[in-house]
Amino acid sequence: MCRTGQHPDPQGTGDEEAAHAAFAALLEDSAEELYESAPCGYLSTLMDGTIAKINTTLLRWLGLEREAAVGRMRFTDLLTVGGKLYHETHFAPLLRMQGEIGGIALEIRQADGGRMPVLVSSAVKRGSGGEPLLIRTTVFDARDRRAYEEELLRGRKAAEEARRQAEADRARLQDALAVLQQSLLPATLPPVPGMETAAHYHTASPDRLGGDFYDVFPLDGKRFAFFLGDVCGKGPQAAAVTSLIRYTLRAAALHDPDPVSALSTLNKVLHERYADNGDPRYCTVVFGTLEPDSTTGEVAVHLASGGHPPVLVLRADGTAGFLPTPGGLLVGVLPSARFVSATTVLAPGDTLLLYTDGITEARTGEDRTALFGDEALLAFATDHAGLPPQAVIQALTGLLRGFGDGLDDDTALLALGVPAPDPQTKNPR
Amino acid sequence: MDIGRRNNVNVIGNPRGRAVVLAHGFGCDQNMWRLTVPALVEEYKVVLFDYVGSGRADPSAFSEDRYASLDGYARDVVEVCEAFDLRDAVFVGHSVSAMTGVLAAGMAAERIGALVMVAPSPRYIDDDGYRGGFSAEDIDELLASLESNYLGWSAAMAPVIMGNADRPELGEELTNSFCATDPDMARVFARTTFLSDSRNDLKTVRVPTLVLECTQDVIAPREVGAFVHRAIPGSTLVTLDATGHCPHLSAPEATNEAITAFLAGLR
Question: B3-124+197-266: which CATH number, 1.20.1540.10, 3.40.50.1820, 3.20.20.300, 3.40.140.10?
Answer without folding.
Answer: 3.40.50.1820
